[in-house]
Amino acid sequence: MEKKKENGLVLDGKQSGRVINGPTNPMVTPLLNDLYQFTMAYAYWKAGKQSERSVFDLYFRKNPFGGEYTIFAGLEECIKFLANFNLTDQEIDFVRDSLPGCEEAFCDYLRGLDCSDIEVYAISEGSVVFPKVPLLRIEGPVAVVQLLETPFLNLINYASLVATNAARHRFVAGKSKLLLEFGARRAQGPDGAISASKYCYLGGFDATSNVAAGRLFGIPLRGTHSHAFVSSFMGLDEIVDKVLRSSDGKSTCEDFVCLVQSCLTKIQNSSSLQGIFSETNQSELAAFISYALAFPNSFLALVDTYDVMKSGIPNFCAVALALNELGYKAVGIRLDSGDLAYLSTEVRKFFCAMERDLKVLDFGKMIITASNDLNEETVDALNKQGHEVDAFGIGTNLVTCYAQAALGCVFKLVEINNQPRIKLSEDVTKVSIPCKKRTYRLFGKEGYPLVDIMTGENEPPPKVGERLLCRHPFNESKRAYVVPQRVEELLKCYWRGNADEAREELEPLKELRNRCIKQLENMRPDHMRRLNPTPYKVSVSAKLYDFIHFLWLNEAPVGELH
Amino acid sequence: MEKKKENGLVLDGKQSGRVINGPTNPMVTPLLNDLYQFTMAYAYWKAGKQSERSVFDLYFRKNPFGGEYTIFAGLEECIKFLANFNLTDQEIDFVRDSLPGCEEAFCDYLRGLDCSDIEVYAISEGSVVFPKVPLLRIEGPVAVVQLLETPFLNLINYASLVATNAARHRFVAGKSKLLLEFGARRAQGPDGAISASKYCYLGGFDATSNVAAGRLFGIPLRGTHSHAFVSSFMGLDEIVDKVLRSSDGKSTCEDFVCLVQSCLTKIQNSSSLQGIFSETNQSELAAFISYALAFPNSFLALVDTYDVMKSGIPNFCAVALALNELGYKAVGIRLDSGDLAYLSTEVRKFFCAMERDLKVLDFGKMIITASNDLNEETVDALNKQGHEVDAFGIGTNLVTCYAQAALGCVFKLVEINNQPRIKLSEDVTKVSIPCKKRTYRLFGKEGYPLVDIMTGENEPPPKVGERLLCRHPFNESKRAYVVPQRVEELLKCYWRGNADEAREELEPLKELRNRCIKQLENMRPDHMRRLNPTPYKVSVSAKLYDFIHFLWLNEAPVGELH
């Protein structure tokens, strides 16, 4: 195994001649595991069962956020985990000390463990996915597969949840808006922040403020300044170096402060703005000027430290105009409080009035960014009220998935030693679908996906143009014939132990993001709407249906009505 | 700086002769930051303001979970961040490339940055804390302090939130119950899982199932097995090695399976249990026997894979009895579904009946563990219904803080160059309390804390037995005289740059946990109750009150009614 380390981050892991690219989180070791995965491994080993070939499905039971779709994410991290799976001697010592009565020979067993006997089939990361359909099918020695359960669930649950949350925010904001993830400070821990940035980008966000995530994953970075920056200035006399070269480098403004002040007067006297504001806050103006002197090419100011319309906007416009005179173009403003619909509309009017009155090309088109505790609902409410916001900066609600903080993926045994296993429950939604399965997505004439179907491993695949009976796995009366116009097999092999052939390559984050955006665009609109969306259908083949119910009967306790 | 690395985790960081103990999360670098902290640092630097002495307060505005208290956690991680603060050349290159027009000299400035000019005063970690009172006061060069904002908020927000959540679960479960954190699979990312385990322990949990957290922080580990373990067995013939030595090592049972079967028959025939169950599930029995053979000293079984009362409990009891005959003591069971109040009561009756009928000492006292999507409300509901649960395993709702997934700590400039700064807002709860402050907790006759008070840095401290006017910071009419029986200064110095003297030592996690438990016990009960708790009072001195309102008037925009 070759590794390049920097700051503790493994930047490349190599396994059996294949390089697994991208950063690996060093917290993700085999000890990131529930103790009982190790106690079970030990019990399997003691019973001589540790190598029995098992098949587990990883899936979820319910879409999050009251919606009818989920974005699958976290697969790459799982594959990297497999590639880097090994227990150090110190870790093995710790496991031994944690298992009462643990025999030394078990430690030798752990020492030799790797994932060369594991096969993982998965839906492509970034896909739109649905309840009950396996996101991953994991095959291998039962003791080893059980050691993957907790890390895989950990790596997929949050990744998929936050990617879905991001996709939902994108849906409500619309394609044309810029979506910025601003969550680092409120995320659930440092890695929560970094994962959030990664998977929000995958789910359709445009950029993040998180520098570490930008660096690790190549996500575009955005950010302006905070209120503290504005408050840290007392007045214009603090600005010592007032010189600014023009954008083309051909001339030099010796006193940018003076230029800004003259622009402010121009604004005050402009025909349509007369009397709208009087004196602006001078420490705010000093802060804006300083920021513009540092970033003349990308000036974006937070305008609500004092009063948006009476101070922030006039101050910003004065600086923007002065920059304009030197050939620069200001980017825009950010609003972080107040009535965002009203303020954004007023700000746009102000910008447009300036473009008209002062003849500054494109001044009316400057970017208005809104932040301040935004979420799906508030963006939706803004849309209904009408607003002029171009970019949304979304933090807390997005990254902590405030509306629903967890996705409940489970990891269920469906076959061992070629014997199918079913987990029954009084709650029918918790009954597992047994057998090693194949899964397909069937597409209709309009190109929309119609239904996902699970079949036994050895059933012939659905054929284009051929009528196929799709059954609800547990409800006898729910069934439909479908004639697919296109059939896509969902589970592909992403890990096949040491065998290198025929394994899907991990794709760059940007590709996953493109897949996500494309698949979402291709969904039938009624599955996507926020209010009462139509559930997407998930089915089993007639043969699998019969088999499930045959097993169910056999497993149910005597005399019980399950 | 001396560092010992293992698996990418820095286990010891040393700074200026002081060892900062314990593991450091390698994801926590200065790049775990919002881009705008760097753009501001650059703008400060361009304006020549980078070294201006600033004071920032870190505090929250509202207690989480509808409660009236919060547990402060995350301090140790902040101090470690300071001790390890440095930007690598690659990181600096990345920052340069992310800042448009960044001058090379700024990179030199970044290269020389450390936290030797920073002072941090903080409330002791594990303390009960309240809104508006600074948890940390951070002093130092403004550009450096701003680079601490996002990492500190990230490290404290979730830590304090989840510790508070744990404390609330402890409160409702009561002192006598065992509380186990089972959240690794549902936590928000790998580090979310590890932080959750750490801070749930701090907040009063007894153990975790998370092996990595157990190892990193010395938290007791607990865990049993999963449904998959039970499902993986087909029948008793799978058990090959049936030998079990007795607990004292003096005798050997050659066929433990046979012994269990005879115990099962005994149970079936025992006077008070006759007819309660008939045939138990044999694959479940096989799984239990295998687990007991692996862990005869700590046998704890999950009993709800098939049917708790008809299969799981009789099977468990048969194995427990057989173990008992060999001198071992089974630990108990876990219930992971169904009506936990009813089932736990029925299970207890069953255990007690067995103790009575079969004369097995303490059999009735075996531990009943409950899991399955538990939270504050469900534990409270169980208490109201009456139950026999001894231990709660709590996962998703605990670690993701499902009821409220974020705490909103903020980081506000309160002074720069010895000038006080106030951040106004139309929303009075968002107005910051200016000035470098001291804070005290005043205790009454009964020993309860009465009120927290903030004063200016140079005001004389409150004195025991002396009448003191405590004012609401923003509401003129809210004021009260208090005669403290004890006064505790809250902010202590935890970081003083390179100066080693007079700095608080970081305490072991167990000490923080003890502080948390002790302080919670010492709160007046009406602040703690779940329904409509009384808010704890947070106040300012008369002098600080006057100063806040003097500044407020001066800062408010002309003609505005704030």
From TrEMBL, chains A, B:
Region forming the signal peptide: none
One MF term in the entry's GO annotations: glycosyltransferase activity
EC nos: 6.3.4.21
Annotated ranges, domain Nicotinate/nicotinamide phosphoribosyltransferase: 331-430
Keyword Protein biosynthesis (UniProt): no
Gene3D superfamilies the record matches: Aldolase class I, nicotinate phosphoribosyltransferase
Keyword presence, Ligase: yes
Stretches assigned to the Nicotinate phosphoribosyltransferase N-terminal domain: 31-157
Keywords: Glycosyltransferase, Ligase, Phosphoprotein, Pyridine nucleotide biosynthesis, Transferase
Post-translational modification summary for this protein: Transiently phosphorylated on a His residue during the reaction cycle. Phosphorylation strongly increases the affinity for substrates and increases the rate of nicotinate D-ribonucleotide production. Dephosphorylation regenerates the low-affinity form of the enzyme, leading to product release.
Catalytic reactions of this protein: 5-phospho-alpha-D-ribose 1-diphosphate + nicotinate + ATP + H2O = nicotinate beta-D-ribonucleotide + ADP + phosphate + diphosphate
Nicotinate phosphoribosyltransferase C-terminal domain ranges (all copies): 436-547
Pathway named in the protein's UniProt entry: Cofactor biosynthesis; NAD(+) biosynthesis; nicotinate D-ribonucleotide from nicotinate: step 1/1
Protein task: Catalyzes the first step in the biosynthesis of NAD from nicotinic acid, the ATP-dependent synthesis of beta-nicotinate D-ribonucleotide from nicotinate and 5-phospho-D-ribose 1-phosphate. Helps prevent cellular oxidative stress via its role in NAD biosynthesis.
Family: Belongs to the NAPRTase family.
Protein name per its UniProtKB record: Nicotinate phosphoribosyltransferase
Organism: Camelina sativa
